[in-house]
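Appendix B.2, paired examples.
Example (i):
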Amino acid sequence: MQTVVAPNDVLRELEPAVEGMLERHLSTAQEWFPHEYVPWEQGRSFTDEPWEIGHSRLSGVARTAMELNLLTEDNLPYYHLAIWETFGGEGAWGEWVRRWTAEEGRHSIAMRDFLMVTRGVDPVELERGRMDHVSRGYYPAGDFNALDGLVYVTLQELATRISHRNTGAITEDPIAEKLMARIALDENLHYVFYRDVTSRALEIEPSETMLAIHRQVLGFSMPGLELPGFREKAISIAKAGIYDLRIHHDQVLTPVLFKKWHLEDVSGLTDEAERARDEVVQTLGKVDAAATRFEEKRAS
């Protein structure tokens, strides 16, 4: 019978891998500065000239996507708290959490500066949204442990990378596109870190990791779900092709689960974990079918 390792024990066993992944990240990540991606010469006083919707050069869906991306980045204090409580603040785990937080904070600084200087969104509504979102906080739902954290953030960081890149493209603004592409590069390195640590977790504790994969794939949702009007905004973003079920299936779930984690080849699973794997595979089929229906509806 397989011995089940407690999540805290898994974290300790993963520590050498985390040290290696952190060193790789630090050697790969490139230093960059938000002020270099902001057209400061376009700035003017909101006091002398209050914002009007005609000031924004962004389309309605581009404004929605940029605002939603920024508001989710703004909730970094709670994401930091959740990751700190999940992985701990000591050793390599703590070093990673602090580095990740610093890099994510840079994203919100850069996006906000760009949107304020270019008058891309209503600054009053943006600040009200930030206050509301951060005041609500962020709390992982359900049965959530360190393995759930690894799985969820892997999927979320990859989804965020894709969403940021597609948001930049839809703005039809070369400066915005360059900024969002730069942010997406960071998100990709974050994704690679969590993805590869999870691969190691599958070797150390395949059954518990498989159960975490099951929980997070079936219950996955992007950050920002608590925002007022999130569903309507998510639908408009999906209709624009920024992030939809087809992208989620083809560019996130399928490559991560089968090309990176080799889900079908994982051995040593308990009966419960075997059933969980089967259900994950079935769920991907359902997501694929739902994506096709959405595409057909969008086309008509």
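Example (ii):
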Amino acid sequence: MTEPHTDAADETAAETTTTVPVPSPASMPRAARPRPPAGAPAAAPTETGSPGARTGGAPAEDPHGRVDDDGNVYVRTSTGERLVGQFPGGDKAAALAFYRGRYDGLVVEVELIEQRLRAGHVAPDDAAGIEKKLRTSISEAQAVGDLEALAARLDALLPLIAARRQERKAERAAKVAAAQDSKIAIAAEAEKIAQGSDWRQGANRMRQLLDDWKALPRIDKPTDDALWHRFSSARTTYTRRRKQHFGDLNERREAARVVKEKLADEAEALASSTDWGATARGYRELMQKWKAAGGAHKDVDDALWARFRGAQDTFFAARDAENTKLDEEFAANAVVKREILGAADKLLPVTDAKTARESFRQLADRWDAAGKVPRDQMKDLEGRFKKVEQAIRGADDDSWRQSNPEGRARAADTVAKLEQSLAGLRADLEKAEAAGNDRKAADARAGIEARQAWLDQAKQALTDFS
């Protein structure tokens, strides 16, 4: 605050302001008269009822205002004095202090908007509104102080407000540009998803893109509308294709359900069959149809598969049990054939072709009578027995040639026996195939193959005697 003027300065100021007409408080309407501050002492009535005499009778002043003897308070401006209030009943220094306090309040308000604006804590438009209100308050202020300096400080804020407006405008433009780029990217991604077939993740991504779109600010209406049209069309296309896909899928699943229910019924009808071969082939055919039917709804498909597989398991468990019995029987046959094979091995090396031949013929009869062996042992046993036979035949070739009638008779007898054995095996094969017994049929085929090889050799030997 500026220090008070000297008395001489006060007198000069009084002289310079006497030309400014000041309305008398008594002539002002009651509602317009300035009021003393709360708690100010009331004017002591004189004998005529007028305010009491002022201290010293001299006006109290400062560079920006004064108080006259009637308690009227004036503020000085470059255009002259202006009445700002009345302070009857108190001393002039108190009056000036009171009205300077009001000025200090305006200073605080101006400083506050300056700080907030420079710190960026107030929007430019809000700052402009505050500045306008403060300017009005200053121009009409009932206060004593350098009001014009305060107005000048407000003037200094105008370029800053304009600059802040430009910054905000640039920020908004940048945000709009970024929003436009984001919306273009969203529309492009949605269009790509719309042409794909990722029905689960695609739907989730479309929902996320919609949320992202809603979070972005609007841009200019034509561009915003055009991009929204692209995005919305892509979502509609994807939704329509997705519904069509699942509609078709449901139809296929329903068709698969009908087929698989029928296959499960057929499988259950075969479960108790003892026609092992034919039924096993039937199950293979049913399995091929099951795979070709496609998938039903998972819970339905699982339930139907449990029925189908359960029927299969029942049948094959019964067949395996039967085969286990046969394997036990065949295992006993294998023991017999190993004993025969041991006796045949003792015929080697051949020293007496005739004796070895006669002994092997007896062993061969016992071999055929022993019956079938487990398939995993058949190849080994048949191969070893055939090896002994070939060794004996090789040693006997010369004697056959030397004794043509007898050799021919033996060869003819061997051929006859082998043909008889083959006929029996072929009959067994026909029975096994008719019964659907794959294991017996396979054993019969293996025996036929071995006997046929022996027969071919026997026939060749018989031919040698011709």
